[in-house]
Structure formats: structure tokens, C-alpha cells
Specification:
It comes from Pedobacter hiemivivus. There is one protein chain. The chain is mainly beta. The protein is about 10% helix and about 65% strand. It contains 2 helices and 9 strands; from the N terminus they run H-E-E-E-E-E-E-H-E-E-E. The protein is elongated, with a radius of gyration of 24 Å.
């Protein structure tokens, strides 16, 4: 019995000692190697909940204070996308999407150990833009009037405030290196601007603007952080 108690005490002491070593690093630099995330809706896009896989498009700088870390994060993504509008003429759009964000927040660990669950909260700014062309896929319309099927140039953007609660798990194989996985839910409040130009002899231009909001689920983000600035 005494031997078991001694073993338990030694494990607790080693865990506490490790946490104190890890807490002696003032700063951490992190990069997200893999993300599974929901992007903002483009126009009247079908399959709004479809998730996008990305890699190495975001990073963080953390300022550590015992169990709390203050985090400054940023992301940038530019990729070709194809969407289908959920509307009568079923337009298909092809183009390039640009998305970036800046966030400031915190995270707090639940315990002192090599495996640390944590929660956090970030707020910041997000910008999303789509530039491309759109054509109708309505077969009946094609048979009636071919001229009306001229391609349409599209320039649509969203910019605004973002708030993100975060839940995650960190593993510390050594004090200088931490592996982490986290999930978040983005609440995006934005100003939306949509401009279209018919690419024919008339060059008919339309412009719409909206104030909207949407929730974006990010089920998993996996990365690595390096702890630097020891004060020991």
C-alpha cells in the first residue's frame, strides 16, 4: 500500500515539475498544419455546409502566463473554386476565392500535465472575396434564347467582425514542443457586396449590398507550436 502511495506521489510530482518547466517559456510560435473548415457562403451557393481541407495557411503567436496564453493569430487562403447557385437558372460559377483573417484572444488550460485540455475565445476581422464568371445551366433557357446565356462577371466580397469560441487538446512530448488539436465555431457578422457584369455587347451591371451574419463550423485544426523565451 505504501509503495502504491509513493508511486502516485512521484507521478504527481513529475507532472507538476513538467508543467512548471513548460510554464517557464514566455512565448510560443505555432503553425496549423491541417484544417477542416467551413468557408463563408458565396452568392446563393448550394451545399453551404460543405467542409474545405487546407494545410499550412495559418499561424499564431502566443504570450504565455502560467495556465493562460494570450494569442494573436492570422490566416490566408487563395484557391480556385467552383460553385452552383441555388436558384431558378442554376448558374455555375468558376473563379478564385481569397480569404484572410486576423484574431486576438486567449486560451486557458484545464490542468498541469503532459496532456492538457483547454478552452479559448478569439475575436477579430475576416475578409472573403470571390472573383470569377457565372453561366446558366438551365437547359430549357438554352433552347429558348442562346443570347441570354452570355457569361456574367462576378465580384462578391464579405468583410466584418468574427468571434470564435475554441476547445482544444495539447500534448507536450518535451517542454520546448507542443502538439495541439482544436475545434472552433466562427460567428461572422459582415457587410456583403455583390457586383455582376453581363459579358456581352450591353455590359449590363448590377450591384447589391447586404448586412448579414452566419455561423461557420471548424471541426478540427491540427498543428505544432515551439516554446521559446525561457525565463529560468
Amino acid at each position: 500500500m505504501k509503495k502504491q502511495v509513493l508511486i502516485m506521489l512521484s507521478l504527481l510530482l513529475s507532472s507538476t515539475a513538467f508543467s512548471q518547466i513548460n510554464g517557464d517559456y514566455n512565448y510560443s510560435i505555432a503553425v496549423r498544419g491541417y484544417n477542416l473548415m467551413q468557408m463563408p457562403r458565396i452568392l446563393n451557393q448550394k451545399e453551404v455546409g460543405k467542409l474545405t481541407e487546407t494545410s499550412f495557411h495559418s499561424g499564431m503567436l502566443k504570450f504565455n502566463d502560467n495556465q493562460i496564453s494570450y494569442r494573436l493569430s492570422g490566416s490566408y487562403l487563395k484557391k480556385n473554386v467552383q460553385i452552383v447557385n441555388n436558384c431558378l437558372n442554376c448558374e455555375e460559377a468558376n473563379g478564385k476565392m481569397t480569404d484572410y483573417s486576423f484574431k486576438l484572444g486567449f486560451e486557458k488550460n484545464f490542468n498541469f500535465s503532459r496532456i492538457q485540455p483547454y478552452f479559448g475565445f478569439d475575436i477579430g476581422y475576416r475578409y472573403n472575396k470571390f472573383e470569377g464568371t457565372m453561366v446558366s445551366k438551365n437547359i430549357q433557357a438554352m433552347a429558348v434564347e442562346t443570347a441570354s446565356l452570355a457569361a456574367t462577371g462576378v465580384d462578391a466580397s464579405k468583410s466584418g467582425f468574427i468571434a470564435s469560441p475554441v476547445m482544444g487538446l495539447k500534448i507536450n512530448p518535451i517542454p520546448q514542443v507542443t502538439l495541439f488539436a482544436e475545434a472552433s465555431l466562427d460567428f461572422f457578422v459582415f457587410y456583403e457586396r455583390q457586383e455582376t457584369v453581363t459579358l456581352d455587347i450591353n455590359n449590363t451591371r448590377t450591384f447589391n449590398k447586404y448586412n448579414k451574419s452566419e455561423f461557420l463550423l471548424n471541426p478540427v485544426s491540427i498543428g505544432i507550436q515551439v516554446n521559446i523565451g525561457s525565463n529560468r
